[in-house]
Structure formats: structure tokens, C-alpha cells
# Entry
Amino acid sequence: MNPEPFWAWFQSHAESLTMIGDLDDRCRAGLLDELQRQLTAYCDGLTCEVSDPGPNGRTLTVSAEGDIELFRAVVALVEAAPDLDWWDIVAFRQPQGTALTVRFDRLRFATARMWFQQLECADRPDLIGLRVTLPADLPPDAASDDVEVGVYVTLEALIGEVDCATLLGYVETCPLPAEPLKSGFQPLDDLPALVAWWKEK
# Structure
């Protein structure tokens, strides 16, 4: 895996990518498709996201989609990144804070209305097991696969890609109990604190 061709392409298109919001839909889609093709040529299985513009420009986040076997490829690519004006290059999806509303397809997951219970991973006591309640307002016809992915995306937004991939050993979902606290659940927004404690213990 040689990161140089990817960064050579990125540098030659950095201005267009910085101003991507000014492009028409067809040009924008074509540029992003080519960005993904260049990334796949470096390492199949990686993805990337271009952020909205901020005071210091845009962020390019390179992700392994939680595949631990590809983590080294992400780190190597980001470490090889040139110094680019108006660009911050980040390895892995980072935690987005709490009190989030995460959208996956047509589904919405509001962390302030979700709860979790810590479970033991009998075969891997070094990992965290979770039981996560589903939002009460999910559409009744929501596909179970979409719901499961949406919950994982929500957890990733709370604690980040690396911790999701390396610390969560088991995740299951359940309906929201009538009285979550009395049923032994904690607010889902408390999960980052549990993860921080787990990493330090």
C-alpha cells in the first residue's frame, strides 16, 4: 500500500474539494466518487467523509468502517498526509458528543431518549457488552437490519469508531421498558463515561 498516489491526486483536487459545495450536483457526485476510487486503489475497504466547511476549512475523515484489520492502513495514510491549507486530515470517525440525533436512512435515533444496560462478555471479559433500548418512535415497518445498523452508527457517534471496534464485544437491542431506571438501565448519553472508565481501569 503506497499512500503517495492518493495524496498526489488529493493535492491536485484540493481546491475543488474545498469548494465542493459550489459545484452542481453532477460534478459534486463525480468528484466524490473519484475520491472514493482513489482511496479504494490505496486500500480496498476504506471510506472517507468530507465535512461541511468550518472556520478553518474542511475535514477529511478516513475510516476503516470498524474493520480492525484495516486500522493500520488508515493510520499509515493519515500519517503520510501532506500539509494542506484549509484541510484537517483525521484518522477514524471521532466521537460527536452527547444529546445527538443520529439519522440512518429514514430512521432517527435520539440518544437522549435511549438507554443502555451493561452486559458481561463471558468469553471476552476485557470487552463491554451492551443492551440498548430502541427509540419508541421508530416506524413499525422499520427493517430489523436497518435498525441494528442505525443503533451501531449511533454508538459510533457517541464513542467513536476505534472504541466501538475495540471495546464493544456484544450489542443487543430491546424495546424501551416502562421504567428504564428501575429496570437497571442508564441513559445512553452516559455511555462515553463508562467507556472512559473502562479504558482506565
The CA atoms of residues 136 and 176 lie 7 Å apart. The beta strands are 47-50, 58-63, 87-91, 101-104, 107-110, 115-119, 128-133, 168-174, 186-187. The chain has a mean pLDDT of 94.
